[in-house]
Design brief:
The chain has an eight-stranded antiparallel β-sheet with strand order 12-13-14-15-22-19-18-17, with no helix packed on it. α3 runs antiparallel to α4, α7 packs antiparallel against α8 and α8 packs parallel to α10. It has a domain of about 220 residues: Beta-galactosidase, Chain A, domain 5 (Distorted Sandwich), CATH 2.70.98. Helix content is about 30%, strand content about 20%. With about 575 residues, it is α+β, with helices and mostly antiparallel strands. The chain contains 13 helices and 22 strands.
């Protein structure tokens, strides 16, 4: 984890009026459910999921929050009973662990799940209060209070009087997905218990820190990439609950929510079933559109006050491959309205300067060619050594990181991305976390773009890399990549492109399925191909994929990538 300095006292004062100081006496968790249509297919699907749990056949991921939502919406006793039983089981399990001198399950994986677990408890404690006993509420409150206190006091954390300190991963980093779980626990328990301590912590410290951070990444999105960056769905949900409960609209305090709507729309490939493979892809290696993407956009649309951003979000929500939520435990999020169908944004090029991501496409039709290019901050543990890397898509992946064809989805090294690979005496020269590369972007007509990136900062003064500038020109369904570099003693620069199928090499040209790669300079370049499956070992499985390596220059390469023929067949899941 790379921590951030968040001493934003001025920002705290400036946005204090947004943080609901006058509303601090309000206790209940308030969610405006006026948007819920109980006759809709979305509601019926959610109800069926919860009813199965009532019938003692809970689906995967069922939570007390699901039952509490149904009780709040319908007032039917069976849902309150189930919510209470589910939370009681959580607390009893924790009490047994604490009695044995151990930390309870909520402390596992450095409190990663404290957010959803305390949300379950808090919603039930608040919304189903009439169906809990006084003794029960005392036990629950003691457990929840200790969990939240331990999150923010990691070195002094304790359970049952026994010390259980933990590392504090993400506690001081408002860019980190763990941090949003901590905010989630604090918000829900603070509201349910009417705790001045926890509401003031959010109001006076954590929200100002969060807003200062999101204001620092213009263009939206997440520095953690497109898998861990989905945790912003939780963050946006918290904005909504805080707004409804505290009458304080922090979600519109800066442009991050609206910018993130644009960021995710442009990060989506033209077939609208996958997104840019930026950073770790630990849930599934290939970044297919899933419920979490839908949830994030639904929450962003619900928060946004910008009519254009809301319309764009509605178009995306009605167009992506996941319309109904694939998993039952996500169906309550689909109660949020997607809005009218709408039309796609007019803009074809999008440069998010805060995350250093450039997206461009030739159109909004499914057959468009699409480009992603990285040059910006490399500051989070789930980000990759991919500064200067690109992804190219037309019908399917033409050139993409090998990471998406691995078992783990977390291959971060330079050897798996489409960039210059520097090797010194046969060893990879790594990019360094905590660095920021830069690029200038000049959009053209019909999705064309010219960008110049300085990637030297990514090597943080390593003498193996003296200079590296990459220029890309994307127009007329063609990408031209021009590299200028200077290296230290014993260092070689190799231009590399990862492809889904084997490159067939003929002189200075290679064809990999529908991708044609022409080396324009140097004239005497040598091309070779690596079958990634031959690299499979005890620490990683490479299921498929190839890498084209171009060697032979000590100062620069110019390589052109284009579609070699007809589009891939549309055989997408």
């Amino acid at each position: 984890m790379i921590g951030r300095s968040t001493s934003a006292r001025c920002a705290r004062i400036a946005c204090a009026w947004l943080l609901g100081l006058a509303a601090s006496a309000q206790a209940a968790i308030t969610v405006d459910f006026s948007y819920v249509d109980q006759q809709s297919p979305e509601f019926q699907r959610f109800k069926s999921f919860v009813d199965a749990a009532v019938a003692n056949n809970p689906g995967y991921g069922f939570s007390a929050a699901d039952a509490a939502y149904m009780y709040r919406l319908t007032g039917q006793l069976q849902y309150a009973t189930l919510a209470v039983q589910t939370v009681e089981a959580q607390v009893q399990e924790a009490e047994l662990a604490i009695a044995a001198g151990n930390a309870p399950p909520i402390a596992g994986d450095q409190y990663l799940d404290v957010g959803p677990m305390i949300e379950d408890l808090a919603l039930t404690y608040d919304w189903c209060a009439a169906h809990t006993s006084a003794a029960q509420r005392t036990r629950w409150a003691n457990y929840a209070e200790q969990a939240v206190w331990n999150v923010w006091h990691n070195n002094q954390a304790q359970w049952g009087g026994n010390a259980h300190p933990w590392a504090g991963w993400g506690v001081d980093d408002p860019a980190n997905n763990y941090h949003y779980s901590f905010l989630r626990a604090t918000l829900y328990w603070g509201l349910a218990s009417n705790s001045t301590t926890w509401k003031n912590l959010l109001q006076n410290e954590k929200w100002p820190e969060q807003l200062a951070y999101t204001a620092s990444i213009p263009g939206g999105g997440s520095e953690e990439g497109t898998a861990y960056g989905l945790s912003h769905g939780t963050l946006f949900m918290l904005y909504r609950v805080w707004r409804d409960s505290m009458a304080a609209d922090i979600g519109n305090a800066n442009a991050h929510v609206n910018d993130s709507i644009a960021w995710w729309i442009h990060a989506t490939v033209p077939t609208l079933d996958r997104v840019a493979p930026i950073g770790d892809q630990a849930r599934v290696s290939e970044p297919v559109i899933y419920d979490y993407h839908r949830h994030l956009m639904l929450e962003a649309r619900a928060i946004s006050n910008d009519a254009t951003a809301r319309d764009d979000a509605a178009w995306w929500l009605h167009s992506i491959s996941d319309q109904d939520m694939e998993s039952g435990f996500n169906t309550r999020h689909n109660l949020l309205p997607a809005g009218p169908t709408g039309t796609p944004p007019a803009q074809l090029v999008y440069h998010a300067t805060g995350t250093g991501q450039l997206f461009a496409r030739t159109g909004w039709d499914s057959a468009a060619m699409w480009l992603q290019f990285s040059a910006g901050p490399y500051v989070q543990s789930h980000a990759h050594q991919d500064q200067g890397a690109f992804t190219l898509f037309e019908g399917d992946w033409l050139a993409a990181t090998e990471n998406i064809w691995t078992h783990s989805g977390i291959q971060q090294g330079t050897d798996t991305h489409n960039l210059l690979r520097f090797e010194q005496n046969g060893q990879l020269v790594p990019q360094r976390v905590g660095t920021t590369s830069t690029m200038t972007v000049t959009p053209g007509p019909d999705g064309a773009v010219h960008a110049v990136a300085n990637l030297l900062p990514a090597y943080d003064g390593d003498p193996a890399v003296v200079a590296w500038q990459r220029t890309i020109d994307f127009a007329n369904r063609k990408l031209t990549v021009s590299d200028q570099f200077s290296v230290g003693s014993g260092t070689e620069a190799i231009f590399q492109v990862n492809t889904p199928v084997q490159p067939i090499i003929s002189g200075n040209t290679a064809t990999a399925g529908n991708l044609k790669i022409r080396v324009l300079a140097p004239a005497g370049a040598t091309l070779s191909a690596l079958d990634w499956t031959t690299r499979t070992g005890p620490d990683e499985t490479y299921y498929s994929g190839w890498r084209l390596d171009v060697r032979g220059s000590s100062s620069g390469y110019v390589v052109e990538l284009s579609n070699a023929g007809a589009l891939f067949a549309n055989s997408f899941e």
